[in-house]
Amino acid sequence: QAHAKVWHNYREHFQPHQKGMMSIVLGSHWIEPNKPEDELDISKCQKSMERVLGWFAKPIHGDGDYPEELKNEFSFLPRFTEDEKNYIKGTADFFAFSFGPNNFKPPNTLPKMGQNLSLNLREVLNWIKLEYNSPRILIAENGWFTDSHVKTDDTTAIYMMKNFINKVLQAIKYDDVDVFGYTAWSLLDGFEWQHAYNIRRGLFYVDFKSEKKERIPKSSALYYKQIIRENGFFPRESTPSLQAQFSCDFSWGITESVLKAESVASSPQFCDSSLYLWNVTGDGLLHKVEGVKLKTRPAQCTDFVSIKKQLDLLEKMKVTHYRFALDWSLILPNGDLSVVNRQVLRYYRCVISEVLKLNVQSMVTLYYPTHTYLGLPGPLLKTGGWLNQSTAFAFQDYAALCFRELGDLVKLWITINEPNQLSNVYNRSSNDTYRAAHNLLIAHAMAWRTYDEQYRSFQDGKVSLSLHSDWAEPANPYSESHSKAASRFLQFEIGWFANPIFKTGDYPATMREYIGFKNRKGLSYTLLPSFTSEEKQLIKGAADFYALNHFTTRFVIHEPQNGS
Questions:
Q1: What is the CA 564 to chain-centroid distance, rounded?
Q2: What fold does the segment set 2-230 form as a domain?
Q3: What is the spatial order of strands in the sheet that 321-325 belongs to?
Q4: Per-residue pLDDT for 91 more than 90?
Q5: What pLDDT score does 427 carry?
């Protein structure tokens, strides 16, 4: 009634010449049924919204009275007279709405009541539209919080603000909700009611312990300023959708990991010189005819049933290249050339030759580590695997064998798949990781040089290695520390292998400087190996193209460890 009296007073005495509008700010949570198909859960959620928001919203924006469910359940609730209902009804020129952390109750009590807390501002705006006959809505307070120790890099607040404002825009554009304004809470850090000074919600950071209480803009203030300037969301740096075609010689392919080879032909019937009669005694079995010998035919690629299945799938897709990996441990079980499994090599040659008949080129990966044992031949694993430099020389011999046996049919080679991801295996120490990477780089370079010097002139193929190449962006684009962290991520993730091969022959200077900095601070005892001048010359330029495996973009933050 107090609000209604003020509204009528303004309406009668001030609004005619001041031309203003008046409302009352109502705050609410938003909850969704634990089981969306359960009518009882839906009913509980509706009751919850009526008790929190409808308690005031229905008298003002509805029929002038409390929700019926509320009156029925709480007999002590005061009753409005008909005159009071008419006096309160419609006493708002717009629906002023508050949505933020203060509106949410502890979540552990809600599932028991068939409810789930939700931060979906779009949904609650739609509920208001449906309940109160599409009122004009102003978001009068909205925002999130950070812990009190967070200063200006309030990254979480940026993403929460982006989510909230985007939900408002979706409600306007897709649902025809009449929202005419948004108000961020709040300008400055301050006393946050029951949370006191334990959280911060301001756009400007305030150091309460300083004498002058300086006001410093946070990242969220810069982001909100950008939203206001652009009046919404625009892809500032991304390329718009393009209606065009690739060049006619653009290659479309499919890739998989290690192709399991058949050790024996799956259709050996033409290799057997015997003649058989079937079911002559009614037993359903084959019976050999003694004394009869037939001519056999030479082994053929069609003897391998699995190849036919692969070909059928590739033909359906109409691709132009097919990438798969050989099984190093199967081809050279001893890790050296003392034992060569010719049957396995024959199987891979059959795959490549049959694929060529479909006018599809094979891109062959020599080494594709997919398991905890790295896919290495057992003897090499026992002697330390990639921690032992002798493995690099063994790989060179293995690569030369494959070039010699298969190179007349293969024009694209990948030596090693994602060597920059092997750190997941060598996790005993950073030193082991860097040592293994060092030997992997040398192994690749020696294999590339072998092809370049001994096979390229008459096989005319190209060789590279494939690097895991996810992109990285600073989680907080307004934070210099996040930008540096994202750049550092790319150097340690991609530049670690790409810089030696495609640029200088050595690791990125950023890596050496950062590792050295941590060592000087006593935060690490890692040593990044050094290349000799001969090794630098060996590695530099050892790739005919850049092969990348890309899956996502990562948001990177700067998070100091060990109190540094």
A1: 28
A2: TIM Barrel (3.20.20)
A3: 253-258, 321-325, 361-367, 412-417, 462-468, 547-549
A4: yes
A5: 61
